[in-house]
Amino acid sequence: MISIHVQILLIILFWNSDCQIIPRIEECGLSCSQGIHCKSKPSSGILNSFCHDAPASLSSMVLKSMKISTVMKCVQGSACSLHLNIKGTLSLDENIRGLEICSLSLDTQRSQCTNVRFARKKSKMLNGKKVQVQFNCIEVNVAQHIYVTMKTVPNYCEVKLSQEYYVEDCRNSDVGKYIPACSAGQFDYNVDRARKIISVNVSNFLRDQDYYVRLCHKWFTCEDVGAFAVIKGKESLKSVSLKYSQLLPCLCIEGWLAIPDARRIQLCPFENDTKALWDNIVYNPATQTLAWEPACPVLVMVNLCRLMKSNDHCEDIQNSSKNSPEKVKYSRVDTHPRLCMKFTTKQGSWVKCPFAHGEFPAWKMRTAAAAEQIQVFFTSQTKAQFSVLVCNRTQLASCESVGMHHSVSVGNSVSITMSQEMCGSTICIQGWRTDVDYSVPLQICDIHCGFCGQTYSDGNSAKAMTHRMKSVHSLH
Fold first, then answer.
1. CB 74 within 8 Å of CB 80
2. Residue 154: cis peptide before it, omega within 30 degrees of 0
3. CA 237 to chain centre
4. If residue 175 lies in a helix (H) or strand (E), which one and from where to where?
5. pTM here?
6. Most buried among 15, 45, 255, 321, by the most CB within 10 A?
7. pLDDT of 101
């Protein structure tokens, strides 16, 4: 565990990096100490890329102490820009004509090189003296990762300084306030649900600068949903219309200036519109697999459940709970209309019943009473195996066994002997499929022994009931 002193130090360091004031310059340039006249010119870096063996008299420490920082060039009437401030110390030597300073962007692989030359007469007089070289004309972007090298001219092997450097990002208050790439703009939006269009108005961004707007699905990154739109900086109308297919909690509006490494802003206004997430349920009849895959990242508990007729409550099926950020699958699932999926988040619970519309074959259970026996029958359009028992329903969803289990297949029946003690309003005949991993148990209750010829069907008492099921229920 990190000690409290280290934690405080880290907080101070991060706070300082965010609040650090970037030094200002009005002009970039080159300067050399010791009164030495030096001048610079752009270089491709190619001619000086191959090194030579250094003379025996030349120390490898002739070049040392390279320091890098960021400066901000601000000229009245123009936008501010960031530059590298590179300092290095060179011991003058008759074998060295100058320096080459190069920067390589590790993000874009773009390089910039500058050749620094010294006036020969003055440098010979100061042979062996140390001269400090400062150069601050390499322009960089916000949050850029830079690799800087400093070599002698000619390029002597093993006489070289190199350093990686990270340019401050928009979290730095100074950079965020004055650098155009950090001026990401502000959004205003309107949703036309009938036409499935989001109209976006953008304000507070650089005048005469183009601006990109897009819709995206936010996962680890924001993934494209269609093409982005361009707001032309010279146009007076600063709005675009973007089409969407579905309002999802991860659907975001993203905007940024049309310049390299521009800061992006995101607005995700539909985070509470989770209802559409539960539609993506797929059943594969060949494998009897029921699957759901989220269209957005969501923290959700998924259960299979049995929809109760009496109050539209959906009772969880044992051992069906899954908590997964990705695809949820259930193998060998019963296609009964009352088998449903329940989704539970912090906002509430939703129930979807994918078999409620009758597209898939459902099985039924019925009984016939004769003297002290109950005859149990199952009907199904497909081959199926069932188990039957007598139970005492102590609660709406709880039925405790009071007899033996009986196995039966479609087309056959099983006779259950009922004693007088086993008859009553809380006594039920319960049946379920055993040839699948997930099945809903159906019950026929309020069994009246001794009523010969009385017939019951699943879920009904002696009085016939009409079965009607809703496919979607909200249990907030």
1. yes
2. yes
3. 33
4. helix 173-178
5. 0.58
6. 255
7. 95
